[in-house]
From TrEMBL:
It comes from Hyphomonas hirschiana VP5. The keyword Secreted does not apply. The modification N6-(pyridoxal phosphate)lysine is found at K178. InterPro entries: DegT/StrS_aminotransferase, PyrdxlP-dep_Trfase, PyrdxlP-dep_Trfase_major, PyrdxlP-dep_Trfase_small. The keyword Transferase applies. It comes from the Bacteria. This is Aminotransferase.
């Protein structure tokens, strides 16, 4: 995540001084400008700023008309919000294994498709893109909607296209842990006019008193309020300019370290769905014990296994199928009995047990990190 600095502080101050704090105030402009920058960065026809990545996922699902009776495929390794978002629109999440790339396994997607499957949410984990060619082909074959969860990979590309702009819809997060950080925030991307109109309507309580809704002839339906304020957008605009340079530094550092680590006989560098523009760097050990031994050499890597709410076995409310009201329970509306068990995605657990995330050490000179990598790649 890029550092927060004086420029964000000034931008926030400008928004406050202008005094048009809600995005639909007559003279407000920061949010429109930020959305324009998002469109330019991603190539998506539409971008809608919302208050979180979770909100972006829910708005995207609502825009696509996903609801009760529908099954949505999500990876077993992701931030829990990917699995809870379908529940919020009345659908149920179906867990899919990841493969060695740490992203959803296209082969397991095929196995998990039922007559009730409506959508897939591929998650680009920690800047590692999913196998989007395979996923889009499967979706086309089965008539499924693809909502990319690009919350952990804002600004990253797959074969030259921005993540979040490849599927029918995409969700971004601007939470403090993400590539673009304003504390909390998010955005929906789509190139489909009707999905955009529906997402915008949903995020603004139906938006029926705003002139812009007429254009797409979408009757107002009940929504929520996840509109951003102008202070957030002013800060986000500054942060956005820092994202691509930051990713480029990471990409160069990764390109310099990965070939060194690849010489090791004790582990392999994790395969990548777009090796040429790779940013994430993780290594895969042959066994859990070997991974633990690697982890003991502290400082440069950590095992993924410790990642609490990123692992399906820790999604307690999903396992319990517990919602805020017993009658508002999508599992009761599902077309078949859905059960979740701790061993249902054993392959995911095995891969996570054996994977270590490599710290790119951006605070240190490249030569130092190269020497560290050489010492480890024995
Ligand atoms: C962070 C994250 C979200 C949710 O984003 P928030 O802005 O925290 O609501 C969803 N999916 C993934 C993969 C994330 O990492």
């Amino acid at each position: 995540m890029p550092a927060m600095g004086i420029c964000e502080w000034i931008a926030a101050g400008r928004a406050i001084a202008e005094g048009q704090l809600t995005r639909y105030a007559e003279k407000a402009h920061f949010t429109d400008e930020f959305e324009q920058s998002l469109r330019e960065m991603t190539g998506a026809k539409h971008a809608l700023a919302v208050t979180s990545g979770t909100g972006a996922l829910i708005a995207a699902l609502a825009a696509a008309g996903i609801g009760p009776g529908d099954e949505v495929l999500v990876p077993a390794y992701t931030w829990m919000a990917t699995a809870t978002a379908p529940v919020m629109v009345g659908a149920v999440p179906i867990l899919v294994d990841i493969n060695e790339t740490l992203t959803i396994d296209p082969e397991d997607i095929e196995r998990k498709i039922t007559p009730y499957t409506r959508a897939i949410i591929p998650v680009h984990m920690g800047n590692a893109p999913c196998d989007m060619d395979a996923i889009m082909a499967i979706a086309k074959k089965h008539g499924l909607i693809v909502i990319e969860d690009a919350c952990q990979s804002v600004g990253v590309t797959y074969k030259g296209r921005a993540l979040g702009s490849i599927g029918h819809l995409g969700a971004l997060s601007f939470n403090k842990m993400k590539n673009l950080n304003i504390g909390e925030g998010g955005a929906v991307l789509t190139s489909d006019d009707q999905y955009f109109a529906r997402a915008r309507s949903y995020h603004d309580l139906g938006a029926m008193i705003r002139g812009h809704e007429d254009r797409y002839n979408e009757p107002a339906f009940i929504g929520v309020n996840m509109k951003v304020n102008e202070i957030q957008s002013a800060m986000a605009q500054v942060q956005l300019r820092k994202v691509l340079p930051m990713l480029e530094r990471q990409r160069r550092r990764r390109a310099s370290l990965a070939p060194i680590l690849a010489r090791s006989s004790q582990f392999q560098v994790t395969p990548h769905n777009d090796a040429e523009s790779a940013i994430s760097l993780t290594v895969l050990a042959p066994t859990r014990e070997a991974a633990i031994a690697l982890e003991d050499r502290k400082g440069i890597w950590n095992r993924l296994r410790d990642n609490s709410k990123h692992i399906y076995t820790n999604w307690e409310p999903i396992f319990a199928k517990r919602t805020f009201h017993p009658k508002m329970n999508p599992w009761a509306w599902a077309k078949r009995e859905i059960t979740y068990t701790p061993d249902m995605c054993a392959r995911t657990l095995d891969i996570l047990e054996r994977t270590c995330v490599v710290n790119l050490g951006l605070k240190y000179p490249t030569c130092v990190m190269r020497r560290v990598a050489k010492g480890l790649a024995v």
